[in-house]
């Protein structure tokens, strides 16, 4: 694969294809949706705040006036909302060509979802896992379906606490977030293996945005928040990039004609924080097949969603 800088224009044309992007009302998700719309896709913005998603829709239409953009309500922290959204999408779309699981959180203190799951694990992993399973037959109906998990470079410091997945005893902000992002990657690898086993044309991939200047970074406590909100915020250019650049790894995973299942994309520049999207390395523990299969079964049990592959 070429190491030259990659741009959205190098992605496959998406005319006639339907893409669902979660958390697409702001930040990286909005730019992923904008990029897909610019390539001709019919894009569905699946967001918790539908008013903000409506504003995002109008923003995209200003840059791509001929695009077809819809909005559906989705709160990935609530399995009832996930099921309702999946039902709405299934009723409207017999085929979903691209699913980008972008929505996510980073809680500063331990919180529980309405279903009783630790907040980061439930929102970043279990909700997207359930949505993917509920929509998988629609992706399989595509002649070239793609499922993109949006992970983080911080997954490399993560551990799956199989004996305390809800972190009742071991919560810290970093432990919760990195566990959820590691779980996303592990499930992606297991899903790709299952897709290959049944000879599906659909593929599962992952990507991370590096150090993108989004609400997750700006809302962090202490020195990180201070830098983003102070007159010294220009210094963040050394290790962060705008959402439009942060979206490129996801767009490459979703549209690059030479991308294959099981690949992981991220920024190729300084410490994978900034730069053009390239193939990056997943942590060794993310590729532990036994752990992947164990986690996948647990996720099916916790969400009540069994995958049809």
UniProtKB/TrEMBL annotation:
<dbReference type="InterPro" id="IPR036291">
    <property type="entry name" value="NAD(P)-bd_dom_sf"/>
</dbReference>
<dbReference type="Pfam" id="PF00106">
    <property type="entry name" value="adh_short"/>
</dbReference>
<protein>
    <submittedName>
        <fullName>Oxidoreductase</fullName>
    </submittedName>
</protein>
<dbReference type="InterPro" id="IPR002347">
    <property type="entry name" value="SDR_fam"/>
</dbReference>
<keyword id="KW-0560">Oxidoreductase</keyword>
């Amino acid at each position: 694969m070429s190491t030259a800088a990659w741009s959205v224009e190098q992605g496959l044309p998406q005319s006639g294809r339907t893409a669902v992007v979660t958390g697409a009302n702001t930040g990286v998700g909005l730019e992923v949706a904008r990029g897909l719309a610019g390539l001709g896709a019919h894009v569905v913005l699946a967001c918790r705040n539908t008013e903000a998603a409506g504003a995002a829709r109008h923003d995209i239409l200003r840059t791509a006036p001929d695009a077809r953009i819809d909005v559906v309500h989705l709160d990935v922290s609530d399995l009832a909302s996930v099921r309702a959204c999946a039902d709405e999408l299934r009723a409207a779309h017999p085929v979903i060509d691209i699913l980008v699981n972008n929505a996510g959180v980073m809680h500063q203190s331990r919180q529980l979802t309405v279903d009783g799951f630790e907040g980061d694990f439930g929102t970043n992993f279990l909700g997207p896992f359930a949505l993917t399973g509920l929509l998988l037959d629609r992706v399989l109906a595509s002649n070239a379906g793609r499922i993109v998990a949006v992970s983080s470079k911080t997954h490399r410091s993560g551990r799956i606490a199989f004996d305390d997945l809800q972190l009742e005893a071991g919560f810290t902000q970093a432990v919760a977030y990195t566990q959820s992002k590691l779980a996303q990657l592990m499930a992606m690898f297991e899903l790709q293996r299952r897709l290959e086993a049944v000879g599906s044309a659909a593929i599962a991939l992952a990507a991370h945005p590096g150090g993108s200047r989004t609400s997750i970074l700006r809302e962090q406590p202490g020195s990180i928040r201070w830098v983003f909100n102070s007159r010294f915020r220009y210094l963040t250019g050394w290790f962060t990039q705008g959402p439009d650049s942060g979206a490129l790894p996801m767009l490459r995973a979703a549209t690059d004609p030479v991308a294959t299942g099981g690949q992981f994309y991220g920024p190729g520049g300084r410490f994978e924080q900034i730069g053009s999207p390239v193939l990056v390395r997943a942590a060794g523990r993310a590729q532990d097949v036994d752990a992947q299969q164990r986690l996948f079964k647990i996720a099916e049990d916790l969400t009540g969603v069994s995958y049809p592959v």
